[in-house]
Write a structure and sequence with these properties.
The structure is a single chain. The chain is an alpha/beta fold. The protein has helices spanning 20-32, 35-41, 46-60, 81-108, 139-147, 161-169, 182-193, 211-223, 248-252, 260-266, 288-296; strands at residues 9-10, 16-18, 65-68, 76-79, 112-118, 133-134, 137-138, 153-158, 173-176, 198-203, 228-233, 236-237, 241-244, 271-275. The strands form five sheets. A five-stranded mixed β-sheet has the order 9-8-5-10-13, sandwiched between helices. A three-stranded mixed β-sheet has the order 12-11-14, covered by helices on one side.
């Protein structure tokens, strides 16, 4: 889905006299030096081309073209000074309308993206924690469940073939890579999402994250689209983090080994928080002991 902007100018009776057709015709006259050649290039009858220009000139009150005499081809047509000025004004107005409509479209119909961060090696855990069992599910599945159906685009970025295979089984887009750093995961995720207006970076090892928390982050971002949103418990801020489009260039250019916190520290006044009911919702299962603790606190 995309917006389409058509600019039509009418007289006081609502009869169209200028739009993209006459505009293109005038540009073709400028290029070819001939109304007839311009009509041929546009696959338009010469009589129709002549009628379009006469109708526009009648409404505008000045000539758009004039006959040129002589030359090796025996003459043709050129734009008048008024015609050139009018064409520049119309195209500037048309382009401004297109840009304004595009901006409004992005405001009312934003495209949302989600990157599930699943590239950790689990050194403290002693292996690939993302596939560790959490009450009958691989832990990465909890991140998939918490973000399911909420975003226009969603991608899992991982270094683990087992995680990639699980995602493929569920038709979840996945990027399997061998790069070492957090900034690599963020960059790869943004590149895969393409043209989105915000992006949630969701850890794959935060099993008590509620889907409702993600929904609240999106709902608040839709109201204030220039803010960074993250959950917090009391004064402790955590993940996931929802970044607006303006932060993407900084996220793509993160220093080696840095994550989204680097951008947040650069823009502390742009951060808004969503309160959660327990600190364990923000907890990472970094060790087997923490995983067992979170299992005992699991909630719907």
């Amino acid at each position: 889905m995309k917006p389409v902007t058509k600019i039509l100018l009418t007289d006081d009776n609502g009869i169209k006299f200028f739009g993209e057709g006459p505009c293109r015709l005038l540009r073709c006259v400028e290029k070819t030096g001939s109304l007839r050649a311009a009509a041929n290039e546009m696959e338009m009858a010469y009589s129709k081309a002549s009628k379009l220009l006469k109708q526009a000139e009648t409404n505008l009150g000045f000539p758009l073209t004039r006959r040129s005499v002589g030359g090796k081809d025996g003459g043709g047509s050129v734009l008048t000074r008024e015609g050139k000025r009018w064409l520049q004004q119309y195209e500037a107005y048309r382009d401004a309308c297109v840009n304004a409509n595009h901006a409004l479209y992005r405001q009312f119909f934003p495209k949302t993206g989600c990157v599930i961060m699943a590239s950790g090696l689990g050194k403290r855990f002693g292996g690939n924690k993302l596939m560790a069992d959490f009450r009958g599910k691989p832990m990465i599945q909890l991140a998939l469940d918490a973000t399911e159906g909420l975003f226009d685009r969603r991608v899992v970025v991982t270094r683990h073939e087992s995680v990639a295979a699980l995602c493929r089984e569920q038709n979840v887009e996945v990027i399997l890579h061998g790069l070492p750093n957090r900034n690599d995961t963020i960059r790869l995720g943004l590149e895969a999402l393409g043209d989105v207006d915000c992006c949630l970076f969701c850890p794959g090892d935060q099993p008590l994250l509620r889907k409702r928390t993600v929904e609240l982050m999106l709902e608040n971002w839709n109201r204030v689209q220039n803010q960074i949103f993250r959950p917090c418990f009391d004064d402790i801020q955590g993940s996931p983090v929802l970044f607006p489009r303006w932060a993407f260039p900084e996220l793509r250019a993160l220093p080696e080994g840095k994550g989204g916190g680097y951008v947040i520290r650069n823009h502390p006044n742009a951060v808004s928080t969503i309160q959660v009911s327990t600190s364990f919702e923000l907890a990472d299962a970094d060790t087997p002991e923490m995983l067992e603790t979170l299992k005992g606190l699991c909630h719907d």
